[in-house]
Design brief:
CATH class of the domain at 69-190 in chain A: Alpha Beta
Largest sheet of chain A: 7 strands, mixed
CATH topology of the domain at 69-190 in chain A: Rossmann fold
Structural class of chain A: alpha/beta
Radius of gyration of chain A: 23 Å
Order of helices and strands of chain B: EHEHHEEHHEEHEHEHHHHH
Largest interface: A-C, 85 and 84 residues
Helix content of chain B: 40-55%
CATH class of the largest domain in chain B: Alpha Beta
Strand order of the largest sheet of chain B: 3-4-2-5-1-6-7-8
Oligomer: heterotrimer
CATH architecture of the largest domain in chain B: 3-Layer(aba) Sandwich
Distance between the termini of chain B: 45 Å
Structural class of chain B: alpha/beta
Number of strands of chain B: 8
Chains: A alpha/beta (516), B alpha/beta (324), C alpha/beta (448)
Number of strands of chain A: 16
Number of helices of chain A: 19
Radius of gyration of chain B: 22 Å
CATH architecture of the domain at 69-190 in chain A: 3-Layer(aba) Sandwich
Chain lengths: 516, 324, 448
């Protein structure tokens, strides 16, 4: 990741004096509507010509609050959340008492833990009269009930539109509350890009939780993970870094508040997804001098090699890194080879299998080269959003694997179904909830597993994960009965004429003035 | 039985719309009609002069109490049987007043208030700074059919009226209320009338009535009354009666032609120049003074050469007390 | 104020709506999920981009890990409102959205559901919807997240259909509508409704269950044809029934819940038959046949019941509809001793008398349960402490406390239910009780 971005591309400064971060559109010209060649996207981005347009037809795709802070923040073990919102915004948190319960204690899960959240259930009266009094009372109640180390306040469209003075309320009530109150500005309307939610979360973490380092822990590596990585990934990363004599500060899922406080003491911040971790990394460097790198991610063999080497560099463990890399390669190279062999035999004449993935930015950068490693082709990829934080990395990927088609959209099921039909890849990876894009005649499988999945086959990170997912993909080629049967026996959502159009962005709104 | 008339009266804060609305309501009630006046301003004081200067509990207050809202909580009888309702709203700086108006009007509908009380005329007295969707509710289909606006010749009032015209135009095609006239307030001077008439001509609107500024109004309001109640024999009361009758008989409604930002700016500038000319003319000053002190003579600024030197200061002068 | 100040403990009085993990979603959510229960309806959300997905994660998945179907989840058209719409209005986007949805997505009825954002900024959804008259059938539900919860949304959806879409029709004898079961919020809705329909068919009554019916929009239009509305709840669906009475002069008959097990089901059939004047002989014949079958099959369970854990003290947590039926069945036919029943869906005062009566007078056990109306998940757990219950039926929110804190066998039977997968599975009707016992006994029995 470039740290010295041309100013017009990325607004890299972090102002912790502000209540919250700028949204991704402002920070890095983020967009979520594009269809064309990746090289074209890159060219437009570099020249500052990348424009966000509107859609006439759009489908629900998540907002800054609900993708995915409702679940993510809720997993912080000794904290509580207060949603200052109408009651519907927080319903994704209803799974909170079951999160991670399937992970046995033998894998490091504590026997007993509790997660907590409250909602202020904003109602009609609150809309008219405002409700910071209620918010304050709710924070006090959270303190009384749970005695947490931190109380996160998550805001909503409703609280934002009526202009609730969250900071004022927090300032008033903090002296009465032992827990650290952490307001996160994640109003759904504040951005088109769900990534803004991540930035808002990290901003709040940096501003309210991270403490001035007491000492420097030279053997501590910060790793920020997404919910789409599993417990086994966590364990594997811990194991690998452990072999290098390093410890991992794994945030935010299932972390403790203390872990956040210590983020400033680490030797380096390493990514799983670069754009997800960007704000945190920059903030830690700006405020506490914690260095960071953004590329590569530990996905695939060469990606993991690079990742371990970078970490080695920042912790003075270059030799240890090489040792681990060598050992892992000895163990896993044969398995990778076997997988590569199998892939070659799927299609006649050793033709490469075509895989289309629905991915976030991080996976786009990591998975495309990884697929190349497996011997699988990605002539096209879908990406939830694009912003200039990954501009250099995207260029590297194009250099490595060649140009490819890219469709940028956030879960737009119609467009994804469309591109699946016209490109007709051998295998399509669906993120969960892709509507009925899975109904097709060729291969279908998932992009990632549930976070609470304790199984080894659900891994994706590092060498073990590269092999596990490779096998997972191969499995998916062995049967098509689910998708074929459903395609044959159930109705299509969309009318046939749509699939005769060239462009999945048929409903792009060309009348609306273009916004940056 | 004639169909219920639903009329919205908009006006910039402070321009006199509540005064005008209350006096119209009172005048209509004198004609034997059942009138309901609904104040749509967070200040909640629209109907005060129909209620002896007292505030009534608002619709939103009742909502806030959490108890089920009964019509007796929100409909209060005022002068001569006029039914008074106040929508209510939040304190300054919090909440959302626009949403408040939406909620209040929805509540009135749900309680079937119009079916229960069967008013002949409903007057919505609405804050003229139509800053968001909520304040446009009375213009929408199913609420008011005709809109009047109270405006003086001051630029701010005209600006607000022009904004209102934009709002009406927007809803015109979806069954919204249409415009029926400007009620020109405080237009004592010829120049003020000219300004408003010109504005009306430019926006293809009409003047419903001229209502002069009058101390009678001030006096009555201080007693918590409309002019109709407090000074029923006065000239001003008759002005309101005429206005009320006009409103009653006027079923004309049309789409106004608001000026865009540049046009409005140009229009205002042209009048600003004219105003400077007029201000310094003696006849103008006499007129202005007449309004405040009937019978007084204007003190016209003498040319420098004729001025009395200020040097001598003897005993303090007694200032004449203005009568009336 | 210093840290030592005592924290006030009266939030239940000052702000009763503040709650940990309430078992519902908002009013928009309620209308939205209900609309996807009608096949042929395409919901269109005029709201922020997160509203639809939130329901996928927090309602569909919570209703037994259900996918939201071809019009639900990420397939739901949405205006994805952002800051610029808040400031400048969202009607234009909505217009384009409705237009493009009609072009792209098959549907017989398009239902625009508005959320918090347009409600606050005052978008005139009604007039935008009206522009499409003649082009397609489009109605709108004028709601918002802050206006209520799922149950309100259910009534709003039905209310919108009744007000904007239904025309009077000639009434048909022995045709009824079933109301009061809220799709997804009542986790066993598909099974409950279809069982009710099949049962009534046995006594010659045609039931329009509205949801999960093929030609769903046609069935909506047929609502006014019913001679009677049957409401399977102490409070859900009552508003809709009232509206139908007012508009189409349809009588309605209410029950405390969908019937669970033979005794409740026989009572149900007898009541309906009486109201519709169906031959007693016919009904009794059906009843006798069904009861004979199910009671013989229940005998397969008696060893497990008696050796496993006879007459257990039991705790129940869930919404009124679910809990009433299950508690009564287990108490009146299986010898369970209900110790505490917590009703989580906050029924209105008028319904609570009835609920209390059902759970005391209609319970055949010396132990009458503590009946607590509680929606706060934290307090629900507190209410379970210091008691004697040996088995618990609740929601997946109680699952792990049941295991780790109370050490009792546990079955999820109400919303939210993330730990089971429910399609047809249900506990309604004659055989529903046996199905319940199959699931419940397996939790603590074996090997015998």
């Amino acid at each position: 990741m470039t740290k010295d971005q041309t100013p017009h591309l990325v607004n890299a400064e972090i102002h912790l004096g502000d209540a919250t971060c700028p949204n991704r559109e402002e920070r890095a010209h983020g967009i979520n509507v594009y269809y064309g060649k990746a090289s074209e996207l890159l060219r437009d981005a570099r020249s500052g010509n990348l424009k966000q347009v509107d859609r006439k037809f759009q489908q629900t795709s998540g907002c800054t609050l609900n993708f995915y802070l409702t679940v993510r923040v809720n997993t912080i073990r000794d904290a509580a959340i207060v949603y200052h919102a109408p009651v519907g915004c927080s319903c994704p948190s209803l799974g909170y008492r079951e999160l991670f319960q399937h992970i046995p204690t033998s894998m490091g899960m504590p026997e007993n833990y509790d997660l907590h959240w409250l909602t202020t259930s904003m109602n009609e009266k609150d809309m008219v009269y405002g409700s910071t009094d209620k918010l304050k009372a709710t924070v006090l109640e959270a303190q009384r009930r749970y005695d947490p180390k931190a109380i996160f306040i998550l805001t909503s469209c409703a609280s934002g539109i009526i202009g609730e003075d969250i900071e004022g309320a927090v300032n008033e009530i903090q002296p009465q509350v032992r827990a650290r109150i952490v307001p996160i500005h994640c109003e759904g309307i504040r951005s088109r890009l769900v990534q803004t939610g991540y930035d808002a979360f990290w901003h709040a973490v940096l501003k309210y939780l991270v403490k001035k380092p007491q000492k420097k822990q030279k053997d501590l590596v910060n790793v920020a993970s997404m919910l789409s990585y599993t417990w086994q990934d966590r364990l594997e990363i811990k194991r690998l870094l452990g072999k290098m004599g390093l410890r991992v500060n794994y945030v935010p899922e299932f972390a403790s508040v203390e872990q956040f406080e210590q983020l400033s003491e680490a030797a380096v911040t390493a990514p799983l997804c670069p754009t997800y971790t960007d704000y945190l990394s920059r903030g830690l460097e700006q405020e506490y001098g914690v260095p960071f790198f953004m590329y590569p991610s530990p996905m695939g063999f060469s990606g993991t090699d690079g990742w371990l080497r970078e970490i080695g560099k920042y912790t003075g463990k270059e030799k240890e890194a090489e040792a681990v890399i060598a050992e892992e390669h000895r163990k896993w190279d044969p398995k990778l080879k076997a997988i590569q062999e199998e892939f070659l035999h799927i299609k006649p004449n050793g033709e490469k299998v075509e895989v289309l993935g629905a991915l976030g930015q991080g996976r786009l950068l990591a998975q495309v080269p990884y697929f190349d490693e497996l011997g699988v082709k990605s002539s096209a990829a879908m990406c939830q959003d694009y912003d200039n934080l990954i501009i250099d990395e995207l260029e590297k990927v194009i250099q490595q694997v060649g140009d490819f088609d890219i469709l940028v959209n956030t879960f737009q099921a119609a467009e994804q179904t469309h591109i699946n039909r016209i490109l007709d890849p051998d295998m399509t990876l669906t993120c969960p909830f892709q509507g009925s894009a899975y109904k097709r005649l060729k291969g279908v499988t998932r992009v990632h597993a549930l976070r609470g999945d304790p199984n080894l086959w659900a891994q994706q990170s590092a060498y073990a994960g590269a092999v596990a997912y490779g096998n997972f993909l191969l499995q998916a080629f062995k049967s098509k009965s689910l998708q074929q049967t459903m395609k044959e026996k159930t109705a299509d959502n969309y009318k046939a004429w749509y699939f005769e159009q060239d462009n999945p962005l048929y409903f792009r709104d060309n009348d609306e003035p273009v916004v940056s | 039985m004639a169909k219920q008339r639903n009329i919205a009266i908009y006006g910039k804060g402070g321009i006199g719309k509540s005064t005008t609305s209350s006096n119209i309501s009172a005048a209509l009630s004198e004609l034997g009609l059942k009138v309901m006046q609904i104040g749509c301003d967070p200040k909640s004081d629209s109907t005060n002069t129909l209620r002896g200067g007292r505030f009534i509990p608002t619709v939103l207050d009742s909502l806030r109490s959490g108890k089920r809202v009964e019509t007796s909580d929100i409909i209060h009888e005022g002068f001569n049987g006029v039914l008074c309702v106040e929508a209510g709203g939040p304190e300054p700086g919090v909440g959302c007043a626009g949403r408040g108006i939406i909620t209040a009007i929805e509540l009135l509908r749900q309680r079937k208030v119009f079916e229960e009380f069967k008013p002949d005329v409903v007057i919505y007295d609405v804050l003229g700074d139509v800053v968001c969707g909520g304040f446009g509710i009375p213009i929408r289909e199913g609420v008011a059919e005709q809109v009047y606006t109270v405006s003086s010749s001051d630029f701010m009032a005209i600006y607000a009226a022009n904004n209102l015209f934009k709002g009406i135009k927007k809803y015109a095609n979806s069954g919204g209320a249409l415009f029926s006239g400007i009620i020109a307030n405080s237009t004592n001077l010829p120049i003020q009338r000219e300004i408003i008439e010109d504005f009306a001509a430019s926006t293809k609107t009409t003047i419903a009535e001229y209502v002069p500024r009058s101390l009678t109004v001030t006096k009555s309001e201080l007693q918590g009354k409309t002019v109709i109640e407090g000074a029923p024999e006065s000239e001003q009361a008759d002005v309101y009666r005429v206005l009320a009758k006009k409103i009653l008989s006027n079923q004309d409604r049309y789409v106004p032609a608001p000026l865009d930002t540049d046009q409005l700016k140009d229009w205002a500038e042209s009048w600003s120049d004219k105003l400077l000319e007029v201000r310094d003319s003696p006849s103008h000053v006499k007129c202005e003074l007449e309004c405040i002190v009937p019978g007084a003579e204007p003190i016209v600024a003498k040319p420098r050469s004729q001025r009395i030197p200020v040097a001598k200061v003897t005993a303090p002068r007694k200032t004449a007390k203005a009568k009336g | 104020m210093t840290e030592a100040e005592p924290v006030p403990q009266d939030i239940e009085i000052r702000y009763p709506e503040v709650v940990e993990a309430p078992r519902w979603t908002c009013s928009l959510g309620g209308a939205y999920i209900t609309s996807t229960g009608v096949y042929g309806v395409v919901p269109i959300l005029h709201a922020g981009a997160g509203c639809g997905i939130a329901q996928l994660l927090g309602v569909y998945y919570a209703a037994g890990e259900n996918a939201a179907g071809g019009q639900g989840g990420t397939s739901t058209p949405c205006s994805c409102l952002i800051e610029k719409h808040v400031i400048f209005g969202g009607e234009d986007k909505l217009r384009k959205l409705i237009d493009s949805t009609i072009q792209l997505m098959e549907g017989e009825l398009y239902v625009v559901i508005s959320g918090c954002v347009p409600a606050l900024i005052g978008d005139d959804v009604e007039s935008v919807v009206r522009e499409f008259k003649g082009k397609a059938d489009v109605i709108f539900v004028n709601t918002a997240g802050f206006k209520g919860n799922t149950f309100d949304g259910y009534e709003e959806f039905l209310g919108a259909v009744i007000d904007q879409y239904l025309e009077p029709r000639k009434k048909k004898k022995k045709v009824v509508n079933i109301l009061g079961v809220v799709p997804f919020q009542h986790v066993f809705w598909k099974g409950d409704l279809n069982i009710a329909k099949n049962l009534l068919a046995k006594i010659g009554v045609e039931a329009n269950i509205i949801f999960t019916q093929f030609e769903g929009v046609k069935k909506l239009k047929e609502i006014p044809e019913a001679e009677l509305n049957i409401v399977l709840s102490t409070w859900n669906g009552h508003k809709a029934a009232g509206k139908l009475k007012e508009k189409f002069d349809q009588d309605y008959l209410t029950f405390p819940s969908p019937p669970i097990g033979p005794k409740q089901t026989s009572e149900f059939l007898r009541s309906v038959a009486k109201k519709l004047k169906i031959s007693k002989k016919e009904v009794e014949r059906v009843i006798e046949e069904e009861e004979r079958h199910v009671y013989r099959f229940t005998e397969y369970l008696t060893d497990a019941i008696i050796i496993g854990l006879p007459h257990p003290y039991a705790a129940f947590v869930g919404d009124a509809n679910t809990v009433i039926g299950i508690t009564k069945y287990l108490a009146n036919e299986v010898g369970y001793l209900p110790e505490v029943v917590q009703i989580t869906d906050e029924p209105p005062e008028e319904a609570r008398e009835w609920i209390r009566r059902e759970l005391t007078e209609n319970i055949e056990s010396a132990i009458k349960p503590d009946i607590i109306f509680e929606k706060d998940t934290f307090r629900i757990r507190e209410n379970l402490r210091n008691r004697s219950f040996q088995v618990m039926l609740g929601t997946s929110l109680e699952k792990w406390p049941a295991a780790k804190e109370f050490g009792v066998a546990f079955l999820s039977v109400a919303f939210p239910m993330y730990d089971r997968v429910i399609v047809d599975r249900n506990y309604a009707g004659y055989r529903g009780g046996v199905a319940l016992l199959e699931d419940l006994l397996a939790k603590y029995v074996g090997p015998l």
